[in-house]
């Protein structure tokens, strides 16, 4: 199934709910949960040091150092499974990526607050390709103040690929809220191109 554009003003967001078949998504979830070097890192939030409510890992080409929320991430060398996914995601999106941030949401208590992926090293119009494995969680998009649009909630199912590009990060914030529903782990891979500051 090709990527389908979502109708969001001042943004370019596309979704393919069937990028990976369910069996392949399940096999990759098991493989990557075990093979990735997961860390739970402290970040600075409103001047205070707090633990991130999720596990993360950063893989990529050697030059793809990434800084966010006061953290400096030096890439781990690509795992074969991640290299293969990168090639498929590049073919599907027509974009180039040199790194991937992996997020592991162990349960409904794990989350990511509203933010934009607009760090200087992603350039003026970041292209982010986000692949979901594991439990379905709701991904929320909210316009920044002054952008005349309504927010959007998207249930992201295993095997789905979401692409954000163009002016999306300039005009919109996104989040993965906590849920009280009992849910299993969700693993998310966001492929990025770090171009230097
Ligand atoms: O887990 C997700 O779907 C969102 C991840 C995200 O927002 C990010 O890595 O910047």
Which tags fit this structure?
197 residues, alpha+beta, Jelly Rolls, seven-stranded antiparallel beta sheet, four-stranded antiparallel beta sheet, globular, binds 2-oxoglutaric acid
Structure description:
The structure is a single chain. The protein has 197 residues and is of the alpha+beta class. The chain has one domain (4-192): Jelly Rolls (Sandwich), CATH 2.60.120.590. The chain is built from three helices and 15 strands. The protein has helices spanning 22-35, 80-93, 168-171; strands at 4-5, 12-16, 42-45, 48-51, 55-60, 66-68, 71-73, 99-105, 112-115, 128-134, 137-143, 152-156, 161-165, 172-176, 186-192. The protein has a seven-stranded antiparallel β-sheet with strand order 1-2-13-10-15-8-5. A four-stranded antiparallel β-sheet has the order 9-14-11-12. The longest helix has 14 residues, at 22-35. It is globular. It starts with a strand and ends in a 5-residue tail after the last strand. 2-oxoglutaric acid (AKG) binds at residues 101, 103, 112, 117, 130, 139, 156, 174, 176, 188, 190.
């Amino acid at each position: 199934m090709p990527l389908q554009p979502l109708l969001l003003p001042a943004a370019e967001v596309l979704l393919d709910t069937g990028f990976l078949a369910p069996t392949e998504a399940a096999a990759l979830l098991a493989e990557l949960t075990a093979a990735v070097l997961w860390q739970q890192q402290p970040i600075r939030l409103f001047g205070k040091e707090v633990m991130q409510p999720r596990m993360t890992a950063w893989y990529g080409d050697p030059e793809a150092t990434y800084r966010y929320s006061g953290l400096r991430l030096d890439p781990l060398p690509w795992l074969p499974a991640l290299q293969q996914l990168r090639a498929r995601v590049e073919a599907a999106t027509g974009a180039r990526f040199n790194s991937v941030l992996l997020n592991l949401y162990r349960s409904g208590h794990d989350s990511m607050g509203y933010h934009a992926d607009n760090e200087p090293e992603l350039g003026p119009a970041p292209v982010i390709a986000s692949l979901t494995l594991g439990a379905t969680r709701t991904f929320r998009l909210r316009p920044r103040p002054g952008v005349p649009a309504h927010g959007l909630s998207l249930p992201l199912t295993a095997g789905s690929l979401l692409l954000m590009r163009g002016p999306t990060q300039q005009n919109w914030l996104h989040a993965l809220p906590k849920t009280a529903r009992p849910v299993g782990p969700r693993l998310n891979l966001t492929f990025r191109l770090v171009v230097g500051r």
